[in-house]
Amino acid sequence: MGLTFINALVFGVQGNTLRALGHDSPLNQFLAGAAAGAIQCVICCPMELAKTRLQLQDAGPARTYKGSLDCLAQIYGHEGLRGVNRGMVSTLLRETPSFGVYFLTYDALTRALGCEPGDRLLVPKLLLA
């Protein structure tokens, strides 16, 4: 469920940032992707923290957390907002450039493959890109 929201956020930020930059260029594709990667960290970082803590907890009735939301609520209760955002800098350092490269690569491949509307091979080309 979280990935649906993250993908909507990423593609929305990327598209709006690209429009705000004014023209489509490789640099702007990278910058728009990097902006999208940075913004999605606000959601991705706490989700990954909860996922990691859930995977590390003991199994059975001695479990500390009942699920992702319970985990985040307990972290917030014990450590506050700082605890929920633990690892944010590392996540930003990973996601910002990687999303920039992702969107730049996708754009370069779609251009190189000649992905044009009406092309009978459009879908396979887009999937390859």
TrEMBL record:
Compartments it resides in: Mitochondrion membrane
Transmembrane is among the record's keywords: yes
Spans of repeat Solcar: 24-112
Main subcellular location: mitochondrion
Keywords in alphabetical order: Membrane, Mitochondrion, Repeat, Transmembrane, Transmembrane helix, Transport
The organism of origin for this protein: Homo sapiens (Human)
Record flagged with keyword RNA-binding: no
Family the entry assigns: Belongs to the mitochondrial carrier (TC 2.A.29) family.
Protein name per the record: Solute carrier family 25 member 29
A GO cellular component entry from the record: mitochondrial membrane
InterPro entries cross-referenced by the UniProt entry: MCP_dom_sf, MCP_transmembrane, Mitochondrial_Carrier
Membrane topology listed for this record: Multi-pass membrane protein
